[in-house]
Design brief:
Number of strands: 22
CATH architecture of the largest domain: Alpha-Beta Horseshoe
CATH superfamily of the largest domain: tm_1862 like domain
Strand content: 15-25%
Helix content: 25-40%
Shape: globular
Length: 507
């Protein structure tokens, strides 16, 4: 029983909330926990378009514009807060961990500031701020409770994030994440598998394993092969059809993980392998602990074991001291590897990182020029690789809300095993519209490869109704809002603006 009666419990009408998420997949995972915590405390998700009684910003600090984005959004809420003093604003995540009480100095109308290590404190801090009529700032320097143990309201009924570790033991000179997320903390394998089994029991058929550096999983309990073992263990979970993971580090990527990917039926042949730079000099300055030859060797072994593997990466342009020759080395690796997708970033100077104090910071115009040339090459290769799939039949997991133009084009969207996004027309061989649900599986033949997606405008050749589709259907029809531990939830998902595939990837 709660020792503090929250306003959500005491008032006739429950207070509403909205979680706005910025940054990586780990932040999306944490926002699902924040939503679960608030609903567990009696709050309800605000209807779309309504200004909530409690607005929570779950922030990212990887990019320089994160600060401007946050304070700009806080500024927009200031007049609303003045009109509705009972409204509460909370700021959490990496930027809160970094700026601490600076946030309330710059934006004194903020009620609560909490860090990455104590997201479970949010409901208590909100109530404390309401009772005391003053801002509450609580930033812990070490992990209080592993986020995965907290109540959750999952965004999807058919796919789920599963965190296996938090924090990072690397010292990349450009990255602020270790300072904000702390040293790596690993969950025990039994806890992870129990969460996955609970998810599958509720209808989830696809999970993505999350960590700042998933392939170092096990370092805390002394098992260097733990991640590969975890992937293989996922094959023993009946009903789990797709397993993905992000984001590994090339310096610690070992052959046993490649073997586990190739030999475990439900582990998808999709690999996100951050490059950052193709220049050995820049990689050394970044403290990446690998060089171009090591990176290309990993790619060669992956392709030998899984010729169909789709590879994605992160690339930073304009690191201090980067020459045109260094940049061309990156372009050479891109041409050689031929990534299906590349997340490209202009170097962002982050206070508190060693790279911020390096000499030879590059002029903006030089960085912009190199960035535009890189993006042009990446898009060209991605398009060429997607065109090779025209005429190929693939099985898609039907997705919800991933195709921005689906309504206008009368298409649905789904993810192929390699995670490529495919827009398809839900018709049978006679041209009749067929009913499929998010979470169901459909077989389609690719008719067109675009730079960033695929199109399948022919007939759907097969439909497989799944437990995941059943779970989605039950969720959409069930009015009761539920919160669980490791279980899919219902209701309005958090507002998400991802900037990176995984926390620390571009950093």
């Amino acid at each position: 029983m709660s020792l503090i009666e929250t306003p959500a419990q005491s008032e006739a009408a429950p207070r509403t909330y909205e979680v706005r998420t910025y940054g990586c997949q780990m932040n999306v995972h944490d926002s699902e926990r924040l939503s679960g915590l608030l609903e567990d405390a009696g709050y309800v998700s605000a209807p779309k378009g309504d200004l909530a009684d409690v607005v929570v910003f779950n922030t990212c600090a990887v990019r320089e514009n994160a600060d401007n984005k946050l304070y700009g959004n806080l500024g927009h809420l200031a007049p609303q807060k003045a009109k509705r003093p009972s409204m509460q604003i909370a700021v959490g995540g990496c930027l809160a961990q970094k700026d601490k009480d600076t946030i309330t100095k710059k934006a004194p109308w903020v009620d609560v500031v909490f860090g990455t290590h104590n997201i479970g404190s949010l409901p208590v801090l909100l109530e404390r701020a309401r009772v005391n009529q003053e801002a509450q700032v609580e930033i812990l320097e070490s992990l209080e409770v592993f986020p995965s143990t907290l109540p959750t309201k999952r965004e999807s009924a058919y796919a789920a994030w599963v965190s296996i570790s938090v924090g990072c033991n690397n010292t990349c000179t450009f990255c602020i994440v270790p300072a904000l997320r702390g040293k790596e903390k690993d969950r025990r394998p039994g806890e992870i598998l129990a969460e996955i089994e609970a998810l599958v029991a509720e209808g989830v058929t696809e999970i993505t394993l999350l960590g700042q550096n998933v392939n170092t999983y096990g370092v805390e309990f002394g098992d260097k092969l733990a991640f590969g073992k975890l992937l293989r263990a996922c094959a023993e979970i009946e009903g789990l059809e797709r397993v993905r993971f992000t984001s590994p580090h090339p310096a610690a990527f070992t052959d046993d993980v490649i073997a586990a990917m190739a030999e475990t039926p439900n582990v998808m042949h999709q690999l996100h392998m951050p490059l950052q730079s193709g220049s050995d000099k820049v990689l050394k300055d970044m403290r990446r602990s690998y060089r171009q030859d090591r990176y290309l060797g990993i790619i060669d072994r992956v392709r030998e074991a899984m010729p169909d593997a789709a590879l994605s990466t992160d690339i930073i342009v304009g690191f201090p001291g980067e020459t045109e020759a260094d940049f061309q080395a990156t372009m050479d690796v891109v041409r050689q590897v031929r990534f299906a997708q590349a997340f490209t970033f202009q170097y962002s100077k982050r206070p508190g990182t060693p790279a911020a104090d390096l000499p030879e910071q590059l002029p903006k115009e030089v960085v912009q020029d190199r960035y535009e040339r890189l993006v042009e090459l990446v898009n060209q290769i991605s398009w060429e690789e997607n065109r090779k799939l025209e005429g190929v039949t693939v099985e898609l997991m039907v997705a919800e809300g991933e195709g921005r133009k689906d309504e206008a084009t009368r298409r649905l969207s789904g993810r192929a095993p390699d995670n490529r996004l495919v827009h398809f027309t839900p018709i049978d061989a006679q041209g009749n519209e067929i009913e499929v649900r998010p979470g169901d599986m459909v077989s389609v033949t690719i008719t067109y490869g675009a730079p960033h997606h695929l199109v399948a405008d022919g007939a759907v050749s097969a439909v497989r109704r799944t437990r995941a589709g059943d779970a989605w259907e039950a969720r959409t029809k069930e009015p009761k809002r539920t919160v669980g531990l490791g279980m899919p939830g219902v209701g309005q998902p958090p507002v998400t603006e991802p900037e990176a595939p995984a926390c620390g990837s571009p950093a």
